[in-house]
Structures are given as C-alpha cells and as structure tokens.
C-alpha cells in the first residue's frame, strides 16, 4: 500500500500555527507523499483551492480562524468537500472529538502525537481516499461505456417498470432514458413488441437467460431488427440487451434474394449448368443439364461428375477426362477439348462445348467448380462446310495456325519415317507498324497481301507459308536434304521481301528478320519447333534488322533468362526473388567491420541463387538494370539505417551502372532513397567503374557534383583495370580507390602486380584518397597491403557476401 501511495505522490496539507507542531506532524507523514503546510486558516483554504490535497491534518486552536471554521469552509466548497480532514489537537477527547466528527472530520489525533499510530491512521485514510478515487473512475468508465455502447441496455424491476436505460437520446424506441424511468416495459416498448418478448421473458425467468432475434416496430413506424438477450435478476427484475442487426438482416435477405435470382436464372437459361463440390461430386443440375445428361437432379446429387457427364472423342470414341477435374486440380478455367461428345444416360451422343471453372470462396480457397455447356451438333455440322474459311487467313488466304499445325504434325511423322530434315521459319517484317501508323491499315493490308503472294511464289508446292496475324509469317519446309538447303531458302525469302513493292505510284521497301529451327537437329516435336524458331527470331530482332538467325541452345537459354528476369522485375524486385547480400569491409588495424558492399543476388523459380555475373550483363543490355539498381539502392539504405539504429554505423557501398549515370536523374533517386529511409548521406558510398567516368564526362561530372553536395562519398571500383587516363582523378570528386582483386591476388607472386598495388597506394596517399583492397584471401596478402599503407580490406579472408541477417550476427 505504501509503495502504491508513494508512486501516486499523495498530497498532504498540514495546518497548524505552531511550527514545532508542524515539524512533529511532518515527521509522522514523512515518505507518505508531497507535504505542504499552512499556519493560518485562510492560508490553508487558499492552498487547498489552488492544489487539492488528498488529506488535511487540521489543528483546532488557531488565531482568527480556528480548525472548526476551516473545516466548515472546506465542506461548504463542492470541489473540496470530499477531502478527508483529520483533526489534531491537545484538547479533551470526547466533546471536541464528537464536534469534529459531526462537522465532517474523518479522524481525531491527540497531541502529543503517537507517531507510529498517527502514521498508520493517516496511511489508512490516504489508501481509502485512493480507493475512493479508483471506484469513482471505474463508475465513470462504466457509465461512459454504457452511454456509448451501440446497444440498448435496460433494467426492468420485478414490477416490469424501468429502473435504468442507457438510451439518453431516445434513439431506439423514441423515449429518452429520463422519460423512460419508472415506465412499464409494455408502455416503453409498445404493446406489439412487448407481446413478442413476453414468451422469451418467461423462458429467461425459468432458465436464467434467453437470447433471440426479433423485429421491433419503432414509434415512427420504421423496422428495427435486433438481437435480444434477457438476463433474470430474480427479485431485482431482469436486464435487457438489444443489439441492432438491421444491416445484417438486410444483407441476409439480399443474399437470399440474390440466390433465388441466380437459381431462377440458371433454371431459365438455354445452356446446361452443373456444379460440383471440391471433390467433383454433383451439387446442382439445372433443367437443361437434366435433359442433356438424362439424369434428374435429385438422382445425380452427390455422384461424381464423370458418372453424370461422361465425355469421349466424337470420332475415335476414346474417353476424355471431364474438364471439371482439370479445373479443380489446377484452379483455373478449362475449355473442353475439340470434337468432344457427351454420352447421355441412354447411350446417345451429343456434341458439346464450353468450359469449366473453379469456385473460390472469399479467402481464395477452392470450394467446388461449375461447368457450362451446350449442344453444338448443328454448329459443328456447319463448321465442316466452312473448313476452308476456318483454316485460312481472311486477309491473305494463307493457311492459318490451325491448318499449319495439322501440316506440321504430318510433316513430322513423314520426317521421322524418312529420316529427312524439315525446317520451320518465322518471318517478321521490320518496322511494319510504322507503315500502318503513317499510311493507314488499308495500305498495310495490301502490302501484306503482296508479301504473301511473293512468299508463296518462292516456295515449292510441298511447302507451306502461313500468316499468324499482324506482320508475322511462318514457313514450313519439309523434305530437306541438309542444313545448307534451309539456309539457301532463308536467304531467298529474305531477298524476295527486300525487292521493292509498288502500290500505284508509291514504292515501299521492306525488310524482314527470320528465325530458323530444324528437325531433328534442334527439335523433336511441333511445340519445340515453334518455340525454338521464335527464340531464334527474337535473337535476330535484338541483333538488328534484315537478319536471319538459326536456333542454338545458347539463344534459348538467354531468352528464357531474359523472360524470367523481366517477369520478376514486373512483379517488383522485392517479390521477384531479388536479394541483397553484403560483403564486409574490415579495418586491418582495429579488426572492426567499418563498411559493407551491397551485392545483388537472384533466386530463380527453382530456388537456385544466381550471382550477378549470370544476369547483370543481360539486365544492362535490356535496360532492366535501372529497376534493379533502384531496388538495391533503397534496400541498402534501409538496412544501413537499421544497423545505425542498432549502434553499428556502417558505410554502405552500392554499385552504380553506366545506364543509371546516363539516365539523368540518378542524383534525384539517391536523394529520394536517403529521405525515404532516413540514412545519413555520409553513410552511403556509390561505387562506379572507370569506364563510367569516360562516358559523357560533362554529364557525369554534374551528377557526381550533385551527389557530393548531398554528402555521399564516391569510390572508383576495380581501379587500374579500366579507362587508361588518370586525369579523371583530378577532375572528378573521388573519395575512395578500390584496388582491383586481380592485382591483390597476384601481388605476392608477381612483381608487376606488386608494383601496381604499391603505385596505387602511393598515388592515393598523395591525393588524400581512401583505399580499399578487394579480393583479400590470405593473411599474407593483408599484411603486405597493411605495410604499404592500405588499412581497409575486403575479401574472403574477412567474409563472403552474405544475407543481412547473417551479417547482423557477425556484427553482434
């Protein structure tokens, strides 16, 4: 108790006109709280009003205004009347004590004081005062909760009349709480509402409580849906809690109406609809599905989809897996196979088509599937008559993808039997979109028709040229004797396209890129032939225009890597599998980690961690390095700020590519990264190679100057291996030279490497530049570098590049 009071710093006011008495009383209350004293009645009242005490120790006999008068004034003041007053006097006990107590005093202490007893009694009153305040706060909290609770709470006495209600404004039943007090529940709630509750009230009186939903009618005629709880208080009556569930009831009604609307819709549409659970068992058939399958809904419920809706190929009669199974297994929409027939319950066949789709709940969990299908027997009969239109391009009358696929499969079978080669070429017109944009699509369409005729005229009768859409053509060349023959065909077609085209008096010059894939050299099936030819075409377009490229494994690997890289960057570097590792930089003298270099890693789908050498060149070539550079910069700043907050002020070094420097806004990106993460600019170091300095020196100089104004330090990475001129050391604002690891690796065994290292160290010292030695792997290398004057080392001797968490363990 004492400790609690001490923490609360109780305020004690001592009122006595004799200083010695004040001293004695003060000793008795030492440590119980903050002590103040007054020597006159008016002074005591003024002090109490300015700073309300928790207890007043009041002497009775004082000049001008005695203790009784002071107590009377205190009890007459609303703000002070609850303060406990303990009288302290040397007068006789009975008469004075009774008078003191009758005036509102809570206790009576006699002089001379028995200090331990007085202290104990004062402690008791302080504790009581504290408990009283806590109870008042709790009561006020309860009152606030009841008044602001979004529910109607009322206490009805045993006679059914209102004892308490929290509806101060009368928002629930139109009667404010003050007016409802003493009113019978029937009158307050209304006859109809009370009659509806009466039956549940009897249940509550029997069982102790009852809970139910009901609809109330307010006095203004509006409806209120409430969840009602009744609690029996025996002789004290009962409690009522009503929670407004009007919106929930409306939502339930709307859901019911919507389900009924969907049911009527599904039963009225012309397509068959079947729904299943997550296991593929039937949960619903609409009337059309009953007619088409021959099963009634009540018979089919719970049975597997394969029994109710068996499928087979139209011609061959081979059974086909129901698309529902694939939709459930892969959680995606699945279309039915071509030439698909439904085997009715009576054995008859109906040609059908459409699709199946998974059903996911609000949490994305698979709960079932739905398949919608219809009879296409007549439509397919019509399609047979329109085979030519279906298999040929409307603009050029060339075979389309469907017919090409059929001929490709036939050619593959023949090539496998004969042992001959076959070739698939993809041809794409260069910059053809510019013609459509500048001259109009009508001109573009006429040119495409002329290109189609020329290609057909340059091929053998057994060859196929197909238009796939846009300005892309695919050429199938079966029965080739050798690779050289395919190269001759490719060159012939390229020249055919390059000849001028004439539309009236207008001349148009076109060129084309081609990608070539060979069977059996590159591919053994149709899918690989398409994919490899596409990869070769892509490689040709990347290399320039009017080119032809044959497929190779290196082309495909580069294409797959590029696409994976692009996909991951589109996902966002944070979610795309890109990681930032850190290699520590160690001060040789103190052996402390004084900085780190941020190095990117890429985790591909299969989980392999790729080093920068595997993807950074491709990222730079395609421009994707800009997004990756932004990601590394921000992540490094975030990690650096976290280490700084943890007491490790490490300078974080980030590599900068030439594309980033050439972009023109790199200094602004750095400024935004520092502002966003809160990392001090002095703890960020940007590493650039010597070749970067040689590109657009004026622009680079301006960018580096802006970065220096921010407070960022600049380091030259791989120093000594790049641009041969050293003038940039004088022109550019450089802070750090990093000795390339190739020199460090050979410095103990090669005199030239050792001389180069010594020269770099000497030059840096002469120009007051800091040094970092890269690739330090042995103690001997470290000692040799330290003797030359290089203190900061980086390399496997001190740690490989590691994730941030592993580095933090090293720091700890």
From TrEMBL:
Residue span(s) of domain PAS: 258-310
Which superkingdom heads the taxonomic lineage of this protein's source?
A: Bacteria
Q: For the PAC domain, which residue ranges apply?
A: 336-388
Record-listed 4-aspartylphosphate modification sites: 59
* Example GO molecular function: catalytic activity
Please provide the Gene Ontology terms (biological process) for this protein. Answer: phosphorelay signal transduction system; regulation of DNA-templated transcription
Describe the location of the EAL domain by residue ranges. 562-812
Gene3D superfamilies, alphabetically?
3.30.70.270, 3.40.50.2300, EAL domain, PAS domain
Which residue intervals define the domain Response regulatory in the entry?
11-126
Alphabetical list of Pfam families matching this protein: EAL, GGDEF, PAS, PAS_4, Response_reg
InterPro entries in the record = Biofilm_reg_signaling, CheY-like_superfamily, EAL_dom, EAL_sf, GGDEF_dom, Nucleotide_cyclase, PAC, PAS
Against SMART domains, the record matches this protein to:
EAL (SM00052), GGDEF (SM00267), PAC (SM00086), PAS (SM00091), REC (SM00448)
Q: What is this protein called?
A: Diguanylate cyclase
The source organism is Chromobacterium alticapitis
